[in-house]
Fold this protein.
Amino acid sequence: MARTLVLLATALPLLTAAAAEPDYGAARQKMVETIESLATRIAAAGTGSLAPSVLAALRQVPRHEFVPTEVRAAAYDNRPLPIGYGQTISQPYIVALMTDLVRPDKDDVVLEVGTGSGYQAAVLSPLVSRVYSIEIVEALAKRATERLAALGYGNVTVRHGDGYHGWPEHSPFDAIIVTAASSHIPPPLIRQLKPGGRMVIPVGPPFMAQNLMLVEKDTREQVHTRTLLPVQFVPLTGGNR
Ligand code: SAH
């Protein structure tokens, strides 16, 4: 009897270790396959297939490290997940699409508004030169900063603040990704976009129908906007929404 108990006691830690380590790598590859097939089906977005480099980034970034442990088992489902403070990590397909739409290049300096978990910033990290990301919830900004550093995303800088005003010190940006819905396109962000630069932003009222918009500033500084597809994001908060 005593021997059985000892055996059980030693077996338990092994079992919990096995349960804590599902095959996230395989789940992640499956997630990217889902995204690829979705992208080819959604012709309305006019984007065609996603760039191989963007898909490669999604195959690398450990999304399970960016979500709370309670929802970790669902980390590679193609859906948004709660990250606390009433906020969410975006659906992986939308992250892929927004990343693809700004056509990231290795020399680019990119601004993200709405760091959240830091996942979108991590996906951008291997594709560009530098990522600057602003988060209005201080605790989320702190957590994302620590997480990105621990995972080795050394070219990402996170700051706590209101991203409506952009980050003038590091502007102009080759690309801007806004991951919270705004009633309008913030003029400071348009000003901080480089000629030839691209911005993606969900525009619409809080918790109602919003549209993902692509904003392009041409080399003569003319701004062109295009409505791409209906989306649902948490609202942009702060003084100027
Ligand atoms: N990109 C995130 C998802 C973010 S959800 C990720 O990959 O996980 C949108 C985020 O925008 C939330 O964390 C929210 O707190 C933040 N946010 C809302 N209004 C903001 C503002 N004015 N400035 C900066 N961040 C803002």
